[in-house]
């Protein structure tokens, strides 16, 4: 319990960005969570940061398509390319690039979505909050788990459903998001990563149901496929 509490303690930014409306916040927060799921292990790369110019890499096509859909809703253009890796066992990495002229808007939008969404989740709706705000907080919790299930390393066993990633703050958000969805979750730090898990049965079913993709508010543009380039593989957790 002490370790989980420490994860939740985090000072806010010095100059908070202006608040987003609820629909924009949901998309920006989920996109920020997807990006955080792809962060490299800090132990392996101490200088690694989530820079705007760096591409976002996904091991699964549906995670990349979800990111494209969210950025399209936020009016941020993106280019997608596929890199084929492996020798005996071939696999694809889906890389998303934001054009240089849009990187500032991209960074500001995802940073605003992350900090505002994180604050809403960790503080919880204030007493007397409207039903709309309470529903919005539940949607943020579902978005956090949806991004983790799409883009983080799944850890599925007979008795648990878990996700692995390297982001300490995202671990805290997922623990809190599970509580918002009335599901107890466990946090287990490991070497270079965190494992957040829920029990099989009703808890797992509730998380999967809550995290199911909702109908898109608008179509994402057709993928712009780039040249196949062999990128550096992210270290495994």
Describe this structure in words.
This protein has 237 residues and is α+β, with helices and mostly antiparallel strands. The protein has one domain: Homing endonucleases (Endonuclease I-creI), CATH 3.10.28.10. Helices cover 42% and strands 16% of the residues. The strands form two sheets. The protein has a four-stranded antiparallel sheet with strand order 4-5-7-6. A hairpin with a 3-residue loop joins strand 4 and strand 5 (160-165). The model is unreliable at 1-9, 41-49 and 218-236 (pLDDT under 50).
Kindly provide the name of the CATH class.
Answer: Alpha Beta
- Count up the domains: 1
Uncertain segments: 1-9, 41-49, 218-236
> What is the helical fraction, as a range of percent?
40-55%
**Termini, distance in Å?**
24 Å
Describe this protein with a few key phrases.
237 residues, alpha+beta, 42% helix, disordered C terminus, Endonuclease I-creI, 3-stranded antiparallel beta sheet, disordered N terminus
Concise summary:
This protein is an alpha+beta fold and 237 residues long.
Secondary structure blueprint with pairings:
Blueprint: H1 2-8, H2 22-37, E1 56-58, H3 61-73, E2 79-85, E3 91-97, H4 103-123, H5 131-151, E4 153-156, E5 160-165, H6 168-180, E6 186-190, E7 193-199, H7 202-210
Antiparallel strand pairs: 1-3, 2-3, 4-5, 5-7, 6-7
């Amino acid at each position: 319990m002490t370790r989980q509490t420490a994860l939740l303690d985090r000072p806010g930014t010095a100059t908070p960005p202006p608040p987003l409306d609820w629909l924009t916040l949901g998309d920006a927060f989920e996109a920020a969570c997807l990006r955080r799921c792809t962060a490299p292990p800090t132990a392996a790369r101490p200088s690694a940061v989530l820079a705007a110019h760096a591409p976002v890499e996904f091991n699964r096509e549906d995670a990349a398509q979800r990111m494209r859909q969210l950025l399209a809703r936020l009016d941020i253009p993106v280019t997608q390319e596929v890199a084929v890796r492996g020798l005996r066992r071939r696999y694809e990495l889906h890389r998303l690039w934001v054009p240089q002229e849009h990187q500032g808007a991209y960074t500001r939008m995802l940073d605003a979505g992350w900090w505002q969404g994180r604050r809403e989740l960790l503080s919880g709706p204030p007493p007397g909050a409207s039903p709309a705000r309470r529903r919005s907080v539940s949607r943020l919790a579902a978005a956090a788990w949806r991004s983790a299930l799409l883009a983080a390393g799944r850890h599925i066993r007979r008795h648990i459903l878990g996700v692995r990633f390297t982001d300490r703050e995202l671990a805290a958000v997922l623990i809190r998001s599970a509580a918002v969805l009335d599901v107890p979750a466990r946090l287990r730090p490991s070497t270079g990563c965190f494992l957040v898990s829920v029990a099989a049965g009703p808890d797992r079913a509730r998380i999967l149901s809550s995290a199911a993709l909702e109908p898109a508010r608008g179509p994402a543009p057709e993928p712009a496929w780039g040249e196949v380039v062999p990128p550096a593989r992210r270290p495994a957790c």
